[in-house]
# Entry
Amino acid sequence: MIINGWHRWFDTFTGVAFLTAAFLPLAALVVWALAHRRTATGVTRPWRTSLAEVGIVYGTVPWVWMILLPGSLAGEVPGRVSLVPLRDLLTMSTPQIAGNLLVFAALGFFVPLRFAALASVPRILALAAGCSILVEVAQYVLRLDRVSSVDDVLLNTAGAGLAALASYRWWCIPVVTRPEVTRR
# Structure
């Protein structure tokens, strides 16, 4: 009976959401510990780097965990695929659309803050699309009783792109223009 009780914490949306909220103080403690360690070693921007790293993991793992939860017929039914863009979008509920937008939003928000090489919206879109395709393929291969849909990839990618735009002011590098040289 106790195993079934613990099982519910890890294999239901409600359980994962509760665990995510419960671990927020631990995530804050990890940010603090990483930042203090980096401050002591002289790393530049220790708080920003630490917050970005923890934010990427804490803000992405629970969503991916939720979308990889098996359905009631997992393993019994073959994987299903929907490759026609915008077909599934018309049948999705508002919470499902919002959830898909949030899956890689933390990734889109924090990755450009942490990794300068990825600090551009097209690179974030490519990263999010790649991650989303991996998740959709995993859903199909693992036969989780879920539909692997191109619309999920589009929404996951759009959410990461919107989040990257939301954090743009913290990671954009202003273009330095040189004064024009006048010739005589």
Q: What stands out?
A: The longest strand covers residues 80-82. DSSP finds nine helices and two strands in the chain.
